[in-house]
Structures are given as structure tokens and as C-alpha cells.
């Protein structure tokens, strides 16, 4: 959306209209019962709904969740979903009154055990070259249309093993961008074993948890990881890479998956 701004650069001052990223409350309602509210960019909401259900362990497969629609309320947007009754009962058992923020995916959890989840070890074992990693990083930067206009969003991208970017999603929240990407991957039929993840944010615990929960084997972040993210990645057999740049990177866990491309003879 456009908003007026007074922009000052040195002695120059101008009044103009600027592109501003949207951030609205988005509520998730399962089988008629509210579960969580996240502050998010109101785009790719079907992907968001499916990806959130998968990465949060609400369902095990996309076939277990049906997207019923979006309600536009004065307070924000409400996503209505239907899940199997057994899943709904399990959700009720771990229900949390979660008022999410764009910077915190576990804020509002009522119990420590609800906030912390340790996914099963990732089974996929792809090999990704350094050259492919750098290619994906460059292509993700070019795919950030919202951020190019506003400078206010994170992005998550899915690349094939040769580094070609297949999908990208943006949001004011890094967790939301990843959830949207996970939903888009399932909609497009991408197998988590056949590629790797690149994100423009730091690698927090929950980013690592969401990636490992859906079977992603390698996550490369532009910024730093947290200590808890490293511990989770090590335990979950997730390759975690931070400070990913065109000229370098830092490998924190399971670095055997990142390899140099074979030399051309």
C-alpha cells in the first residue's frame, strides 16, 4: 500500500508517496475453534494456512487439512480450516492462546512443553554444492518483489539441488514467510528431499524446527543462528548454515551435505 512520507537526505527534504508493507492480524480457526493469531502480510494466505498446519505439527500431511475460506473482519483476517476429529482433539489438548508477533513464533505459549518441540531426525541426505548455494542466494534476492518496494519483509526460498530457485514467499515475519513457502511447496508437489532452503533472516530455534519438521535437510540463513537453533539442528540431522554470502558462509551442523562442485576436466 502507499503512504505519505517526508524523506530527508542531508539538506534535501521531500514529501512523497512510499510503498509500505502491510501487517494485519491473521487468525487460524480449526473446526470452528480459534487457535492462534499471527501478525502477517496478507498475501499467499492459503499457502500460509497449509504450511502453518504442517510446520506446527497440527497435521501430518496436507491431505489432513481442508482450507474452507477467509473471513474479512474489522479486526483482521480469519482463516477457516477443517482437520480430522482426532487431530482436533489433540489440538485442544495442547491449545495455547497465542498472540503471535512477526518476530516471535512461540510467544504466548502457555506451557514450556508447548513452546518447545523436538522434531524427528531428518531422513533425507541430499548433497548441495557451494556454487548451488550461492546461486540460490542470488536468485532469492531477485525474487523479493515486496521487499524491493518496501524494504520491510523477509523471504524464504526453495531451490533445487543445482541452486535454481523454484519458489519464494515473503512476509513481515520470518516464520510466516517459511510457513507460506512450506505450503507452496506442498501445493506444487516439491519433495523436501530434492532441494534446500534459503532464508533472508537469522536462523532461530523455530525456523530450524519448522524446517526439520517437514523433512528439509539443509537450511541456509543470511544472518546468524541462535545457540538453541544449533542444538536442535544437530539433534534433528539438519544441516544449518549461517552468514550465507556470495563469498562465504559458516557451517554449524552436519556440514557433510555441503560439498565443492567437481572440477571440470
Layout: helices, strands, pairs:
Blueprint: E1 2-9, E2 12-19, E3 24-30, E4 33-40, H1 45-55, E5 66-72, E6 77-82, H2 85-93, E7 98-99, H3 112-115, E8 128-129, H4 130-142, H5 145-150, E9 154-160, E10 165-171, H6 174-188, E11 195-199, H7 205-213, E12 218-221, H8 227-235, E13 239-245, E14 248-253, E15 258-259
Parallel strand pairs: 3-6, 4-7, 8-15, 11-12, 12-13
Antiparallel strand pairs: 1-2, 3-4, 5-6, 9-10, 9-11, 13-14
Helix pairs in contact: 1-6, 6-7, 7-8
Q: Which labels suit this protein?
A:
265 residues, alpha/beta, Ubiquitin-like (UB roll), Cytidine Deaminase, domain 2, 2 domains, five-stranded mixed beta sheet, 8 helices, 15 strands, globular
The CATH topology annotation of the largest domain reads as Cytidine Deaminase, domain 2
Helix share bin? 25-40%
Low-pLDDT sequence parts: 106-112
The end-to-end distance, rounded to whole angstroms, is 53 Å
Order of helices and strands: EEEEHEEHEHEHHEEHEHEHEEE
Overall morphology:
globular
Query: Which structural class is indicated by helix and strand composition?
Result: alpha/beta
Q: Radius of gyration, rounded?
A: 19 Å
Taking all residues together, what is the mean pLDDT? Answer: 90
Strand residue content = 25-35%
| Number of E strands | 15
Give the CATH level 1 class of the largest domain. Answer: Alpha Beta
The CATH architecture designation of the largest domain is 3-Layer(aba) Sandwich
**Fourth-level CATH superfamily of the largest domain:** Cytidine Deaminase, domain 2
Side by side, the strands of the main sheet go: 10-9-11-12-13-14
Q: What number of domains?
A: 2
SS field, number of helical segments = 8
Largest sheet: 6 strands, mixed
Amino acid at each position: 500500500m502507499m503512504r505519505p512520507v517526508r524523506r530527508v537526505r542531508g539538506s534535501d527534504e521531500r514529501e512523497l508517496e512510499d510503498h509500505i508493507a502491510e501487517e494485519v492480524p491473521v487468525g487460524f480457526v480449526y473446526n470452528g475453534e480459534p487457535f492462534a493469531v499471527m501478525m502477517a502480510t496478507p498475501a499467499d494466505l492459503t499457502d500460509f494456512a497449509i504450511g502453518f498446519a504442517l510446520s506446527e505439527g497440527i497435521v501430518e500431511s496436507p491431505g489432513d487439512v481442508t482450507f474452507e475460506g477467509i473471513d474479512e473482519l474489522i479486526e483482521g483476517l480469519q482463516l477457516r480450516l477443517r482437520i480430522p476429529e482426532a487431530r482436533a482433539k489433540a489440538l485442544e489438548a495442547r491449545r495455547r492462546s497465542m498472540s503471535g508477533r512477526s518476530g516471535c513464533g512461540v510467544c504466548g505459549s502457555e506451557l514450556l512443553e508447548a513452546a518447545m518441540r523436538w522434531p524427528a531426525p531428518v531422513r533425507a541426505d541430499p548433497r548441495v554444492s557451494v556454487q548451488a548455494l550461492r546461486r540460490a542466494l542470488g536468485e532469492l534476492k531477485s525474487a523479493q518483489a515486496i521487499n524491493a518496494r518496501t524494504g520491510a519483509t523477509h523471504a524464504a526460498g526453495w531451490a533445487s539441488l543445482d541452486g535454481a530457485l523454484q519458489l519464494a514467499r515473503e512476509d513481515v515475519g520470518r516464520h510466516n514467510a517459511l510457513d507460506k513457502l512450506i505450503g507452496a511447496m506442498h501445493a506444487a508437489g516439491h519433495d523436501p528431499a530434492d532441494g534446500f532452503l534459503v532464508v533472508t533472516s537469522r536462523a532461530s530455534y523455530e525456523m530450524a524446527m519448522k524446517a526439520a519438521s517437514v523433512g528439509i535437510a539443509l537450511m541456509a540463513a543470511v544472518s546468524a543462528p541462535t545457540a538453541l537453533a544449533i542444538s536442535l539442528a544437530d539433534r534433528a540431522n539438519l544441516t544449518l548454515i549461517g552468514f550465507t554470502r556470495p563469498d562465504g558462509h559458516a557451517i554449524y551442523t552436519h556440514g557433510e551435505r555441503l560439498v565443492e562442485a567437481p572440477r571440470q576436466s
